[in-house]
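Section 3.1: Structural characterization of target chains.
Under the original work plan, the team committed to producing a structural model for every single-chain target entering the pipeline before any wet-lab resources were allocated. The record below documents one such target. The sequence was received from the expression subgroup and is listed exactly as submitted; it comprises 76 residues.
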Amino acid sequence: MNQYSSRREKIFKSMKANCAIMLFSGKAPMRSEDDAYEFSVNRNFYYLTGLDSEDMVLLMYNVDGVYHESLFILPY
């Protein structure tokens, strides 16, 4: 088990039943019509996934004691 999955496991253990957590990686703000500022990933998202890319979503939820996690990534 790597450090990121153990961190997510720790979060799951502290979650109550029928709860969800949704984290977004973020998106670089636009500077002008055709230029964006440098991207900086959401620190909480990075802490739980280790991923440093825009437009990703981590969904973690607990349904009656059964833990689920999904990572949503836009197509390339």
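The two ends are 28 Å apart (CA to CA).
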